[in-house]
Amino acid sequence: MEKEDLKIVNRGLEDEMELSGYRLCRWKLVLVGLGGLCTGGFLFLLLYWMPEWCVKATCTRSAVRDADVALLQSTDEFKRWFRAKVRIMLAPGKDPYDNLASQTVSHRANDHAHNPSDSKRYFTLHSTKYFWNESIQNFEVLKGLEDLSMTCSSVHSKHSAGLNKNQQEYRRFFFGLNEIDVKVPSLFKLLIKEVLNPFYIFQLFSVILWCTDAYYYYAMAIVIMSVISIATSLYTIKKQYVMLHDMVAAHSTVRVTVCRGENETEEALSTDLVPGDVIVIPSNGIIMPCDAVLICGTCIVNESMLTGESVPVTKTDLPNPQQDIKGGDGDAIYSTEEHKRHTLFCGTNIIQTRYYTGEMVKAVVVRTGFSTAKGQLIRSILYPKPTDFKLYRDAYLFLLCLVAVASIVFVYSLEPVKEIIVKSLDIITITVPPALPAAMTAGIVYAQRRLRKVGIFSISPQRINICGQLNLVCFDKTGTLTEDGLDMWGIQRVEDGRFHHSEEKADDKSLVTTKFVSCMAACHSLTKIEGQLSGDPLDLKMFEATGWILVEATEEETAHHDRIELTYVKPPNQLLPPSVTSPEQDMELSELYELSASYMIGIVRQFSFSSALQRMSVVVRQIGERRMDAYLKGAPEVVASLCKKETVPDDFAEVLEDYTKQGFRVIALAHRRLESKLTFHKVQSINRDQIEKNMDFLGLIIMQNKLKTETPGVLEDLRRANIRTVMVTGDNMLTAISVARDCGMIQPQDRVIIADALPPKDGQAAKIDWHYADQPSKQLNKSIASICCMLTQFSDTLTKITVTQYHFAMSGKSFAVIIEHFQDLLQKLVLHGTVFARMAPDQKTQLVETLESVDYFVGMCGDGANDCGALKRAHAGISLSELEASVASPFTSTTPNITCVPNLIREGRAALITSFCVFKFMALYSIIQCLSVALLYSIGSNLGDFQFLFIDIAIILVIVFTMSLNSAWKELVAQRPPSGLVSGPLLFSVLTQIIICLGFQIMAFLLIQKLDWYSNFYNCFVPHHMDDFTNSTKERIKNDVNTTVFFVSSFQYLIVAIVFSKGKPFRQPSYKNWPFVLSALILIGFLFFIMFFPVAEIDDFLEVCLFYQFGTKCLTWLCCRQKKVPKARYMHLAQELSVDPDWPPKPKSTTEAKPAPHPDDYSYQIEAIS
């Protein structure tokens, strides 16, 4: 047996875990059972809370392959423990991708039911099944067809026919039903889980303890509070489960058409689908029930649920390299991420489909259930990572310290052992106040309500506190800092390798038949949905600038004309010259051409825009011509590299740089006349690399991306508050730098250093070229071959420019090279990195992780498109999209600009300071009450049942919930609130208040017993000390000392609340919080009233002494103490008699002389008898 058999599952992924195997041990189970019975079930609770202890207490270590129980620990910073029961599944085989013979699965299962080799070991954790794999000797997750590492050609050749019934049933053994099963737990299950929370167990323990000490009313009040808290929590949790369940219900069960072989189809439920099934996408659309790759046809998809992008995207069929005219070059491994333009994701809405004559739109199921893109999103919501914040860790430590202090208080006690135990436990329950969780969340709840008023919604309220610590915010550019739409600024055409002068409009009659305008009109992914043009905003602006019309062929037209294109574009008749003729006219279409009399261009094939390639292209055919044309558009540098050198102007780089420096977004166009041998059907299977080469450069389109009016002001506010701002965009580097300067992210006098990293090539090491953004030709340092040399030269450069602030800028490609080859430089670069351009979605996430690794509190603000990973990873992700993608972001703003960022930080700071104030107040409240009870215990007394009730409900709860109402300060300041409780100023503040409160309580406690009128004159019971417990509980509670301590501590609670209710610079001043001010004044007034004007009913209820003018006499005594003591004895005697209520003697009374208790004392005691 391998004692130290440790495996790693999900290696390299976000949910990577260490796995250990254990087998159940009978004698350990018996011992644990006996221990649980002896401890009254407490041991069972402890093992329920601690999975690691539970497994080690009931099992023995074993090899992972033989384990009955799997113990897992996450490898992240939280080090969470999980346990899972290993089960055995009897299946007809071990590999889900095996092809079965024609016999039925059930028959095979019966044949092999007793064969141990056909058993499959697995366990389930977080809605994911982990199966034992003999070849790798570890548990693994079966995700779907991607496990096979299949090439694009094999998807077509091996998986396009679909599965038969037997194969489908066999695979369902392993993959289960295709459903994202969000089970809504019953209220009883939720109740049990909630009640077993350690806090509520502590509450139960406290209630039992208080009942044994006859504090029935107080215990009842705490029970009511706990019931309300549990009911509220259950309602919230149940509501969240129902919302999640409804969110996935739309596509959980739908009817789909499944292909069985080449020509056979059948109707089936979507829950029966398994990876490898081929489904038919209906023409009227469907909400996808799984992840599938298109192998035939085209779909228009709304992916807003996943990406936040409201613009429908066009999904094309997966290229089949084996049908390429070159014979299958570039046959890549299929990946949902790399080939997302051909993949239909679960939960996305298929709006409509396009298909060729006689063919159905088909897709191969790749992933099902929780393995799908939407399933993983739902899993991240169902099983979120805990929020790691220093405040919460310090809070637990602080509570433990309070409990330790409370335990030490009773060291001096000389009471019987039973009394010591009961009172020690009682003081611990006082130290951890029952209202603490509600009090700590009050500020967050109020902040959430205020955020809702300004259009900011949160699905993770606990992160509001973390927002108060943000010191760096990353912004997406397009749609976030700048307007979402682009405006056409102009065009600059190229002819004979030279630039023309820039032109404002593209819809001029003289340009309508040029290749430049044809490229603008045809090279896009626009489509018509219910008669309206829809698609990428950039495509839409370009197409509208031409003034052309887009027409989609009807179903009847495609049925009659096999070669007619599905979509074509044409200019309006008023833009055409009087006569447009073509020497090569297709006689087959002459009738249609004569009827139309238009310059129509049909779109034959579309290669969608790829962020990795930074370009898109189309193959078109002008109606009436035999040969086809290819049009290309994309990033200027990329397009120029694909064009013939003689067609690219010599001053291309200078012209491009000039435009990008001014902040324009530049797109380049290119054209190529295709060979006549390329037919319609060959084009459908050709690789895009065969089309996108040897192009003729056509020119540039210049788009203007205007800053949002709010952007500069918000960034200036953040800069004044010492909050760094970083731009993370997919746009051009120089354009991004220009926008950064325009919006104030980079100050005019600051220098920008571009880091241009190059990967290893031809045996040379990776290197970084450094140059100024405004002097690209003048390099600061020469290319650096080694990292040591580069560091030396770079440090010299930095010393020269320390006079001015410097910023680093880099592209996504450079960022990837730096991550791989220059890890030691990475953190130094992000320290001053301000512009990150051409960044892919996963690189945005990596950047956020890198910034967090150097202890920045990072916020991320994006429009939801391609920002989901970074929004989830950041401490505070703010989505400007109101779509369903906001479920991946902790915060969503309905205001489509970045004013939400300072609002969120201000409210976060206010909530954080409120949490500090409330925690300090609750800590002081616990200490004050602990001191009060300890002092009263020393004379055999205690606070009364209703005194506890008055303090906890009338004072503490009211004050806590009103002191949290302070709204945020109107502006951001440079100072940041502390992140934890363990800091010098906070500890000094708390300790100082503890010493002051302790001093005043002890002083009042000792002073009241030295006063001349301290006796049983006023019908109060003199406290009996430790040696006398014969008096009733009421006699031990209702006495002069108790009343004094009660009043002093009540005033202390109010004073501490006022002292700790901090205002500026993070919250509005407390005097503007009228509920808090009013509550404090009413409580202070009430306490003074019952002191100076006693009401018998109130005093009986609060169990305080009904002194005759108790307060007046205290005040008089204090005033008299300030007067000079008379020298003459007669004056001193007269002063004493003036405050003696039994002098002069009352009429009809007798004064008797009694001997003194000590025989040596010859004095007499005088007692008046009526």
From TrEMBL:
<feature type="region of interest" description="Disordered">
    <location>
        <begin position="1140"/>
        <end position="1161"/>
    </location>
</feature>
<dbReference type="InterPro" id="IPR018303">
    <property type="entry name" value="ATPase_P-typ_P_site"/>
</dbReference>
<feature type="transmembrane region" description="Helical">
    <location>
        <begin position="1073"/>
        <end position="1095"/>
    </location>
</feature>
<dbReference type="InterPro" id="IPR059000">
    <property type="entry name" value="ATPase_P-type_domA"/>
</dbReference>
<dbReference type="InterPro" id="IPR004014">
    <property type="entry name" value="ATPase_P-typ_cation-transptr_N"/>
</dbReference>
<dbReference type="GO" id="GO:0019829">
    <property type="term" value="F:ATPase-coupled monoatomic cation transmembrane transporter activity"/>
</dbReference>
<dbReference type="InterPro" id="IPR036412">
    <property type="entry name" value="HAD-like_sf"/>
</dbReference>
<dbReference type="GO" id="GO:0015594">
    <property type="term" value="F:ABC-type putrescine transporter activity"/>
</dbReference>
<dbReference type="InterPro" id="IPR023298">
    <property type="entry name" value="ATPase_P-typ_TM_dom_sf"/>
</dbReference>
<keyword id="KW-0479">Metal-binding</keyword>
<dbReference type="InterPro" id="IPR047819">
    <property type="entry name" value="P5A-ATPase_N"/>
</dbReference>
<keyword id="KW-0597">Phosphoprotein</keyword>
<feature type="transmembrane region" description="Helical">
    <location>
        <begin position="29"/>
        <end position="50"/>
    </location>
</feature>
<protein>
    <recommendedName>
        <fullName>Polyamine-transporting ATPase 13A3</fullName>
        <ecNumber>7.6.2.16</ecNumber>
    </recommendedName>
</protein>
<dbReference type="InterPro" id="IPR044492">
    <property type="entry name" value="P_typ_ATPase_HD_dom"/>
</dbReference>
<dbReference type="GO" id="GO:0031901">
    <property type="term" value="C:early endosome membrane"/>
</dbReference>
<dbReference type="Pfam" id="PF00690">
    <property type="entry name" value="Cation_ATPase_N"/>
</dbReference>
<feature type="transmembrane region" description="Helical">
    <location>
        <begin position="986"/>
        <end position="1008"/>
    </location>
</feature>
<feature type="transmembrane region" description="Helical">
    <location>
        <begin position="215"/>
        <end position="237"/>
    </location>
</feature>
<dbReference type="GO" id="GO:0046872">
    <property type="term" value="F:metal ion binding"/>
</dbReference>
<feature type="transmembrane region" description="Helical">
    <location>
        <begin position="395"/>
        <end position="414"/>
    </location>
</feature>
<keyword id="KW-0067">ATP-binding</keyword>
<keyword id="KW-1133">Transmembrane helix</keyword>
<dbReference type="InterPro" id="IPR008250">
    <property type="entry name" value="ATPase_P-typ_transduc_dom_A_sf"/>
</dbReference>
<keyword id="KW-1278">Translocase</keyword>
<dbReference type="InterPro" id="IPR047821">
    <property type="entry name" value="P5B-type_ATPase"/>
</dbReference>
<feature type="transmembrane region" description="Helical">
    <location>
        <begin position="420"/>
        <end position="447"/>
    </location>
</feature>
<keyword id="KW-0967">Endosome</keyword>
<feature type="compositionally biased region" description="Basic and acidic residues">
    <location>
        <begin position="1143"/>
        <end position="1161"/>
    </location>
</feature>
<feature type="transmembrane region" description="Helical">
    <location>
        <begin position="916"/>
        <end position="940"/>
    </location>
</feature>
<dbReference type="Pfam" id="PF13246">
    <property type="entry name" value="Cation_ATPase"/>
</dbReference>
<dbReference type="GO" id="GO:0006874">
    <property type="term" value="P:intracellular calcium ion homeostasis"/>
</dbReference>
<comment type="function">
    <text>ATP-driven pump involved in endocytosis-dependent polyamine transport. Uses ATP as an energy source to transfer polyamine precursor putrescine from the endosomal compartment to the cytosol.</text>
</comment>
<dbReference type="GO" id="GO:0055038">
    <property type="term" value="C:recycling endosome membrane"/>
</dbReference>
<dbReference type="InterPro" id="IPR023299">
    <property type="entry name" value="ATPase_P-typ_cyto_dom_N"/>
</dbReference>
<keyword id="KW-0472">Membrane</keyword>
<feature type="transmembrane region" description="Helical">
    <location>
        <begin position="946"/>
        <end position="965"/>
    </location>
</feature>
<feature type="transmembrane region" description="Helical">
    <location>
        <begin position="1041"/>
        <end position="1061"/>
    </location>
</feature>
<dbReference type="GO" id="GO:0015662">
    <property type="term" value="F:P-type ion transporter activity"/>
</dbReference>
<dbReference type="GO" id="GO:0005524">
    <property type="term" value="F:ATP binding"/>
</dbReference>
<dbReference type="Pfam" id="PF12409">
    <property type="entry name" value="P5-ATPase"/>
</dbReference>
<dbReference type="InterPro" id="IPR006544">
    <property type="entry name" value="P-type_TPase_V"/>
</dbReference>
